[in-house]
Please model this.
Amino acid sequence: MSLVVLRARRGVEDANAVARLIIEPEAYYSRLAPDHFAAVDDDGLAAWLAADGEWLDDPANLGLVAELDGEIVVTSTLRFRSRLRTFALTRTAT
Model:
């Protein structure tokens, strides 16, 4: 077994696998606890993910997939943000 972490690729192959990783757990939990979880509507999800090249092209975003023996088994997305300004706290005499 070989686990490889790669940048997410634009296109149908990664999109279909990522859609499956979203849909399968949601379907499971919605059957287990329908009052707390709703199944994801898979109609068009893979196509929407495949067409999301603009998000992948943004240098502030990072999409990763992990492949186990060539099959995508994990996905992760990150959005990098600029640092927040820090403010110095001053103590006032009372």
About this structure: The domain at 3-79 is CATH 3.40.630.30 (Aminopeptidase). The chain has one domain: 3-79. The beta strands are 3-7, 61-68, 71-79. The mean pLDDT is 86.
